[in-house]
Amino acid sequence: MIIPVRCFSCGFPVAAFYEDFKKRVSKGEDAGAVMDSLGVKRYCCRRMMMGQVDLLEGIAKFKKG
Predict the structure, then answer these.
(1) pTM to 2 decimal places
(2) Domain chopping of the chain, boundaries
(3) 28-48 confidence digits (pLDDT tens)
(4) Distance of CA 24 to CAs 6, 11, 19, 40, 45, Å?
């Protein structure tokens, strides 16, 4: 849903890089190269970025009120 602030395994702050990662990948850049340029080197942090699925807009349809 929402990107976690820190990596679950090592504690690296991945949320700070997610928006830039998302924009650059949507423009057609290679995900691995984008993470390298952002300084996301560890496999656990890469997993956090690559495995993220944005569900917030879909869930927001069902809000109460």
Answers:
(1) 0.77
(2) 15-60
(3) 999 999 999 999 999 999 998
(4) 21, 24, 9, 14, 17
